[in-house]
Amino acid sequence: MYICLCNNINSKKVNYALEKGVSSTKKIYSFYKCKPKCGKCIDLMNCIVEKDADKIKSL
Ligand code: FES
């Protein structure tokens, strides 16, 4: 599933970054040497970083 279309970041990439010890949304973008562009993915990214499954379902 794509999380951030602007930067081509899918859930696999987010999980990989989390496994590598990345601990915040901001750091996920820097891990992939990019920055949020449109910002539509920020909420979803936050939920994934916080492992908030209920919030993810409601988005
Ligand atoms: S979808 Fe992530 S910045 Fe646009």
Architecture overview:
Strands 1-2 form a two-stranded antiparallel sheet. The protein has a single domain, classed as Arc Repressor Mutant, subunit A, CATH 1.10.10. It is globular, with a radius of gyration of 10 Å. The chain is built from four helices and two strands, in the order ββαααα. The two termini are 14 Å apart. By secondary structure, the chain is mostly helical. The mean pLDDT is 92. A hairpin with a 4-residue loop joins strand 1 and strand 2. It binds FE2/S2 (inorganic) cluster. The site of FE2/S2 (inorganic) cluster has 10 residues, from loops.
How many alpha or pi helices? Answer: 4
Q: Rg to the nearest angstrom?
A: 10 Å
What is the spatial order of strands in the main beta sheet? 1-2
Biggest sheet layout: 2 strands, antiparallel
Shape from CA axes? globular
* Measured distance between first and last alpha carbons: 14 Å
What count of domains describes the coordinates? 1
Helix content: 40-55%
Strand content range? 5-15%
| Annotated CATH topology | Arc Repressor Mutant, subunit A
Q: Poorly predicted ranges (pLDDT <50, ≥5 residues)?
A: none
Structural class of the secondary elements? mainly alpha
